[in-house]
Fold this protein.
Amino acid sequence: ETGVTQSPTHLIKTRGQQVTLRCSSQSGHNTVSWYQQALGQGPQFIFQYYREEENGRGNFPPRFSGLQFPNYSSELNVNALELDDSALYLCASSLVRAGTGIHYGYTFGSGTRLTVV
Amino acid sequence: SQQGEEDPQALSIQEGENATMNCSYKTSINNLQWYRQNSGRGLVHLILIRSNEREKHSGRLRVTLDTSKKSSSLLITASRAADTASYFCATVGLTGGGNKLTFGTGTQLKVEL
């Protein structure tokens, strides 16, 4: 059984650029969530994808967007990067049984450390 | 925004001592979970307690939940140097949000030899 893997582990971008972060879900999981963790803070929910559609979104602007693919892997895209976007980005996958809304096996990846200069 | 606060923000103890961390939250919940994070890396799920439960144990971990006070505590008994990490509580609300986790601000635990 594989865990959740994220790539890259570290990334440095310039203000105004665009970035794509990637996440491979744990085998058997069908839901992926993304979180942003600023230094010294708890993670904050960005959005969640289920069956390739956004299924819940936190208080983040539209320049944060995502995709979930048929193999349940996912991407987080951030456009027009700002200095405050510097953070650890965490991906988490889980299994939601149809019709229940209950998540099983919430598993986090090791994160991507994004630095915007 | 964060769901609530964790107390203390930092805790330093000797190996073998017990460590207690508290978490307060603001809204009604379906369940509350505790996570551990080493050196700003990924989060490791420790334990989940449902809103109709009051206490739960897992190995050296004991979690309590008081929904009337909207608070929870995590007790780590007989701490080890390897327990040094940041600990976060996270809640899942009753409705909507796609079962998102709302995290607290975390407690940094340092266990010294």
In short: Chain A is about 0% helix and 55% strand.
